[in-house]
Specification:
With 421 residues, this protein is α+β, with helices and mostly antiparallel strands. The protein has helices at residues 2-22, 140-150, 189-193, 239-250, 284-296, and strands at residues 27-37, 40-47, 54-58, 65-68, 71-74, 86-92, 100-106, 114-119, 127-132, 156-159, 164-165, 168-169, 183-185, 216-220, 223-227, 256-260, 301-304, 310-313, 328-332, 346-350, 360-369, 372-381, 391-398. It folds into two domains: 27-118, Immunoglobulin-like; 122-408, 4-Layer Sandwich (Purple Acid Phosphatase, chain A, domain 2). β11 (164-165) and β12 form a beta hairpin. Bound molecules: fe (ii) ion. Residues 162, 188-189, 262, 306 line the site of fe (ii) ion (FE2).
Length: 421
Amino acid sequence: MKVKITLTALLVLLLSVMTVEASGAEIVGGPYLCNPRMDGMTVGWVADTANAGQVDYGKTKAYGNKAVVTLCDRIVQKPKVKTQRFACRVRLRKLVPGVTYYYKVSGKGLSGQKEGQFRIPKRDEPHLTVFQTDDCALTDLGLRFVEKKVGRAADLLVDGGDTVQRGRDYYDFKAQLYRRLPLVVAKSNHEHDWPDKQANLHHFDYENCTAENLEHVIDYGAVRWILGPYVRYSDNFTQKQLTWIEEQLKSTERKWKFYACHHIFFSDGYHADLRWGTKAGEGKARRQSVWPLFMKYDMRLAVNGHDHAYQRTFPIDKDGNKTLRGTVNLDVAIGGSIQRRQSPWMARFIGRGKDKDKRITGVTYLYVSGEKATVEFYTYPKKDPKLEDFKLADRFTFSTKNFHQDAMAPGPSNKAPRKTK
Ligand SMILES: [Fe+2]
């Protein structure tokens, strides 16, 4: 009997040790950077335990400063998934532009450590923005290509939204790029429609955004980005929202200002025909109300996603008439949408029509340097892409005051990469 008790006790002890080991918290995504400012940055990560970890940071890899978790939200999982996921964030403050900061996430219940680094760009430097939206996440290779092409490390990743679906991110912050490139996101319908609204919005950890629609404005390096507000499908902006947008357009001394929101204004794709709401067609009402503001304040580029294609208009006014003092509407969601019409204002459309097997994807960037801004879009094969596979599919340039003639011509022809057998 004595032996039996001893064996049972040993078994209980062994099981309890195994349980302790199994409950060691892990980072399952990230770290990633978000909420960038000229003097601050948020470091976030996804872990299987709440409130685990801390950030050590500093100007060298010896770090020297410590910051603790300031926010931690539970992330909604797919319906049958039993694992728990938490988004933890640490806000780093009093940072200085032009300085490279090193950081590591570790300690306080987390196993292992993960490192990253970032540099806040100075206001008078050239500035490189890359884009992603919907299910077209930027890849490490795509970023490498753009940085090699431009000859500068990217400063900012602007995301057009719809990057969560059924309780998970399209990107799981697994790519290395999220450790060094801050992310800003426009709110969109997938996030909006999700019942537990806040649970998936961990990368919307913005200071000074409005609570209602999470619109926010970011001054970063040479650029002011205005993101949102979110407006459902074919709805128009409210007067209050238009007033907010105008306030952001006129209250900056930065000569480069750009706008991003999820729902496209001028589309020739799937969403040009209405599927939800009124019979007005998505974007029609909104472009009538907001485009005059864009042009009044020399806002040259409005970036969207939602309709899964690359689409670029000529510089146009609210009615789609070409003008060098107009604004270009750019949809960076290369993917499966088909071209439903050929509008006179559309300069370039690359969707499923040109890519029946969905074999290509792409990367879009915006580079501002001095008085000139350049946008380029490159396609590459989805399967096993290499740097030499990237092909120029669209390009245009402009100044703060007007577009150059290259924006008035349709984009260069681009053949989809052939399937190799
Ligand atoms: Fe959408």
